[in-house]
Amino acid sequence: MDVKPRILVARQAPAEVLGRLAAHFEVDLHPGEVPLPPEQLRERLRGKAGVFITGTERISAELLDACPELRAVCTMTVGYNHIDVAACSARGVLVTNTPDVLTETTADFGFALLMATARRMAEGERLLRDGRWTSWAWDFLAGAEVHGSTLGILGMGRIGQAIARRGRFGFGMKVIYHNRSRLAASTEAELGARYLSKDELLREADHLVLVLPYSAAAHHCIGSAELALMKPTATLVNIARGGIVDEDALAAALREGRLAAAGLDVFEGEPRVNPALLTLSNVVLTPHIASATLPTRRAMAELAADNLIAALTGARPPTPLNPEILPA
Asked: Taking a C-beta distance cutoff of 8 angstroms, is the pair 168, 186 a contact?
């Protein structure tokens, strides 16, 4: 009888996904809500051919060297800054992610966070719950206009374009964007989007949404200098990755009234949140849940399983990040 390859599932996954994996592999499941510490992850990965991970497990060159039998790293996230893809490629380890399946859900959440930030919803709820709603005034919790305002998008990939569609067609917003590469003219026309330099984008946006992938070059690409270019009435929303925003600089701008408000779903040290942000009333904080609907999370897990099964059974995975290592 053939021996099944051994894999590690580093976090709990839907039962139907675990069942599919168990049909192909000998599964070592870490069911806890807290991720495995690095040393335990390394020990559990020894002798495994594949690993199913989320965004909290870091795959480094050192870990790969300690686990030479590893052949596939499959994350159920779109972002992959937690994986050293170059180190994987150098060792012949396939890496996959889960693009497309969470685009619309994440765009929905991004726009919801924009609305909550602009219209001071979290601030109002806290005030109401604390029993501090005692009267009406013409400027009571008055926020920023969304309809007809200027929506700035930094990072115009799938999710950025989905947010642009919501802004233009749902709220009549003027859409401006900056991206590493400019979109095709036909796509710009479809979205009603105008390409600007990064500095121009920062100056013109009433609401800035960050949707760019994290990289070393993108680290703190929104810092003191960039925030100083923005309107004091503007809002900033980050649904991309922690580390893109210098959180100390952002907290200072919010505290000093140089920026009206911010909405953050991602944090540089998550799940730890910068204490300076926790003291501010003009920031909406959510715990990295932009893709968190049950259908979408199931679709992400299913695609990660598809990739892992294909990678270890000789088929071509649907969404490889380093396809150059695959056989022709």
From this structure: no
Please say if 241 is a catalytic residue: yes
Q: Is 270 a catalytic residue?
A: yes
pLDDT digits (tens, 9 = 90+) for 58-113: 999 999 999 999 999 999 999 899 999 999 999 999 999 999 999 999 999 999 99
Catalytic residue among 11, 241, 247, 268: 241
24 a catalytic residue? no
The whole-angstrom separation of Cα 51 and Cα 35 is: 14
Catalytic residue among 104, 190, 200, 270: 270
CATH level 3 topology of 6-99+294-325: Rossmann fold (3.40.50)
Domains 6-99+294-325 and 103-285 share a fold: yes
Q: Are 326 and 316 in contact (CB under 8 A)?
A: yes
Nearest to 176 by CA among 142, 200, 145: 200
Domain spans, the chain: 6-99+294-325, 103-285
* pTM over cut 0.85: yes
Please list the residues that pair with 177 across neighbouring strands: 153, 195
Per the CB < 8 A criterion, the answer to whether 192 and 168 are in contact is yes
CATH number assigned to the domain covering 103-285: 3.40.50.720
Give the percent of the chain with pLDDT over 70: 100
